[in-house]
């Protein structure tokens, strides 16, 4: 706590004094471009890992970066989403999971939490779609592999849940909103983004800036810049979005 | 009521006596292949319009063929879905809306319902994602055109909501479940199915049975066997599933 | 699925083409006379077993033909009831259970469902009134006998629950609404209706059409055309409906 | 979005590469000392304003830094609180509001939000305790003054709400947990903390580090380093915190 108070003064005398114009401008209003949804985990600093200035990221943080389906809960998640899209006109939403996520570890041993942490238990049941998918589709995995795939699939679950919010549902139809699924790796500082065409988590790209060619070139394993093993990626590929098209 | 009682006897002496073997077999257990979700509207008879025998369709019927997102309500919808997929192993789910739908008419004048029919009002708020999308994307439409597009979009909303149910979320990943969006037209007896590739409602096909070539040939308007006008279809096309892929 | 698509065409070329006038008329509006509440079970086809044409039955279907008491849930059941009675002016409501009901089997082994089918588990808890009544009043029964009485009592439970809906409560007082309790037997195609005077499930009659005299004559057991044994019928009499009046 | 992707790379090549040891250590587990609850507002960067490294702050962010009383909602707030205190053993919780808060502006014109942003409307009703206190105690204020006092009082409301969580309630009794109320001023980069002895928001201090003597000396207004006017500060004193002890 003492360190934080010293930090407040350091911020004022250092960063703030150098960027007074920015803060003066920000005091007139915020115009963030991105809604960044991530975990409460202390090891994630959204602005740091994206090198974003104050004013750029509208942020929701809870345990496990979980966004329950529309109407399923009445906590702060829905209001922040609605405010971001409706009032601020934000057009990019990123759900960012992370390696070594304690919430996802909890999801994999859910029964043990009911007694000791009932609120965590109830909240993680909002990620039942993740738990069930992992249980039924990755029964061969254990330990770190199981945790990694749970983290990866959970972000995709939240993307699906986001689609059920009226304000998002409507903007998606108009092509005025983009949803991105990211996973941040604490140990190497890398972020991987879900590529819905390749059905893999890969180094993120952007329409206006081509991927680094080196990252596009297949490596010896054949999955360039991919995070999961080819086998894991294949599972996601076949499972996750292959059958997204409606059979008519 | 008298007519129904007479009908019961007619069923016994006519249909039942001719199909005793079927009913004998059905008394041992049900093995339906399809979960058919449709409106309570009296003008829809799921078995009649699909020429399905008893035992083929597991049926959910409510006002407006609405399936709230997972966790949003605690009515019978979720249980029937879970039972169909988990206990019965059903692999095909059809959400079937219909023309002249009273529930969708109500959705378009929602405010007027709060006083007179509070339960209908509350229930239709579960279709807020449809209402908002229509309001924001089809502001130029009125009357029958507006109703038609609302009916069509509402079925697609429910398809998205279905994806949030854990049991569906998981099976979709495994490619063991297919979701279909249908609209039944009372006035001409036709059913149109959403084609996620063409982004239109068209005459339904099946993998094993090719579409009637005549239906595949473009007509003078250029939209063969399509239900909505080219303009409307184009709106759905651009709006609905164009941007379904995740931007990474 | 392919069969269904073929069925759609068969419906159009056969039934629809022969009844175009009916469907043309129906496209102008629905005027059903009966709200028919039954199970999602695939073996039940309400229109088939009552020989009803399209337009005659407004239908609610969920797992176990359960209608929770007013206010207990926020699913689609209440809205469909309100719409049927208030907007459509329906004056007859039938709750129709059926033999071999999977939901009622589940109710008799509820604890085993919590893990595997949590939504079914939660939904069946809405039929706790049935479960408790059966547990406390039919402790001597097992197997098929227990299931039969559970199915029969459950329909009566739902009749009581229906009475709690404001729109029904009010119309009942005015004598403008009639509630009927039916059980459909898959194996013999028969429907039995609860007779509140005789306190038994018997072949249904109607005020305008006298019962078949043969059915009115006591048989050797003394319970003509009755479904349950005299002992079971007696239990229902004492247990649940002494003070209630049902139109059958 | 392109800027963020470039930012990810900048973070890796710059900050991460310089602090690899820190991240390597963090990948083994998190041991944050503080639960930092603040608004989703893009202009707040908790780590920046406290000069905190990754791993130091466990963060909850939602619209308006609102923590509903225990049991009032089932969103992510409760779970993150429970996890922070129970699983991570955190002993300091800070609720940090901020100037120019859009959520608090919304709270002051709540009725206008119901139609356009229903989820925001519902969420802000969780801050009704703030709204009512302000309405009944600061009826003479308008404009910026009213907004400032609302922001200040709202943080204190959330401190009271936090006390209702079982895990916090118990630790407070044991003296093992401290709650702090902060308000961050975007325009000047300063943070003010509620001082429960002086009943004012003042520059925060810490037990281990004496306050800057200059800040302790009364200024001409008589309220050194205080944010609100003496009148406002006095109102807070009488209105909300006479009998409470907060560590600042």
From TrEMBL, chains A, B, C, D:
Top EC class of this enzyme: lyase
Transmembrane regions listed in the UniProt entry: none
Recorded catalytic activity of this chain's protein: hydrogencarbonate + H(+) = CO2 + H2O
InterPro entries (alphabetical): Beta_CA_cladeB, Carbonic_anhydrase, Carbonic_anhydrase_CS, Carbonic_anhydrase_sf
SMART domains from the UniProt entry: Pro_CA (SM00947)
CDD domains in UniProt: beta_CA_cladeB
Keywords on record: Lyase, Metal-binding, Zinc
UniProt keyword annotation of Metal-binding present: yes
Cofactors, names only: Zn(2+)
Gene3D superfamilies: Carbonic anhydrase
Top-level taxon in the UniProt lineage: Bacteria
EC number: 4.2.1.1
Family under the similarity heading: Belongs to the beta-class carbonic anhydrase family.
Protein name, entry field: Carbonic anhydrase
């Amino acid at each position: 706590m003492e360190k934080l108070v010293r930090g407040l003064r350091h911020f004022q005398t250092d960063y703030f004094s150098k960027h007074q114009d920015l803060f003066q401008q920000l005091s007139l209003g915020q115009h963030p471009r991105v809604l960044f949804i991530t975990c409460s985990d202390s090891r994630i600093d959204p602005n740091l890992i994206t090198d974003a200035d104050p004013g750029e990221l509208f942020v929701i943080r809870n345990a496990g970066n979980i966004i329950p389906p529309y109407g399923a809960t009445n906590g702060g998640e829905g209001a922040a989403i609605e405010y971001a899209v409706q009032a601020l006109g934000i057009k990019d939403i990123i759900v960012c999971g992370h390696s070594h996520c304690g919430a996802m570890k909890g999801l994999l041993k859910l029964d043990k939490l009911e007694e000791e942490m009932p609120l965590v238990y109830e909240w993680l049941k909002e990620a039942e779609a993740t738990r069930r998918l992992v249980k039924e589709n990755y029964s061969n995995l254990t330990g770190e592999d199981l945790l990694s795939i749970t983290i990866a699939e959970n972000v995709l679950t939240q993307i699906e849940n986001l689609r059920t919010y009226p304000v998002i549902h409507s903007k998606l139809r108009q092509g005025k909103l983009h949803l991105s699924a990211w996973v941040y790796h604490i140990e190497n500082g890398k972020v991987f983004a879900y590529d819905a065409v390749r059905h893999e988590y890969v180094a993120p790209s952007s329409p206006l800036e081509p991927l680094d060619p080196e990252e596009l070139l297949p490596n010896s394993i054949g999955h360039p810049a991919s995070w999961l093993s080819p086998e894991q990626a294949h599972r996601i590929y076949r499972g996750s979005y292959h059958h997204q098209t409606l059979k008519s």
